Hints:
Elements: H1 3-19, H2 25-29, E1 30-38, E2 45-46, H3 48-61, E3 62-74, E4 77-88, E5 101-113, E6 116-124, H4 126-132
Parallel strand pairs: 1-6
Antiparallel strand pairs: 1-2, 3-4, 4-5, 5-6
Amino acid sequence: MSTEENKQLVMRWREELYKKRNVNIIDELHAPDFVGHYSGIPGPIRGREALKHVFAAYFAAFDIHVTPEFLIAEGDMVVVRDTSRVKHTGAFQGTPPTGKEGTGTSTDIYRIVDGKIVEQWFETDFTGFMQRLGILPTPEHGGS
C-alpha cells in the first residue's frame, strides 16, 4: 500500500472507533496477530479480541473526544498527534464515575502491512490524566 492509502486506513480506523464507537471495525482493519503497546497498560495487547476488550472498557467508563492535530506517514508507518477531551462517566477499575473532565495530548504510531494495522504504539501521560480525572490520587505538595 502507498503511504496515502496507509493514512486513509488509519483515519478510517479512528473515525469508526472514536466517532462511531465501532469496536468491531478492529476485525476488518487489524491483523489477527496485532500487537499494541499502550501507555498505562502493562504488557502488550495481543490480538483483535484483546484490543476490542480494552476499547469496550474505556468506552464504558469515559466519554472520549479525540481531535487529530497532525498526521505524518512514511513507508509502513503512520504517526498521529492528538488532543483528547475525556469525561469520566462510568466505573473504571473499581472507581465510580467522578464526572471530572480533562484534556491531554497523545501520540499514536501505527505500522501497517498488507492493508492491516499490525502494530501500534500509544504514548500519553496516563498517570497525570488519571489524576486529573480523579481516578488516581495526586501527590501531596509542600507544607509540614
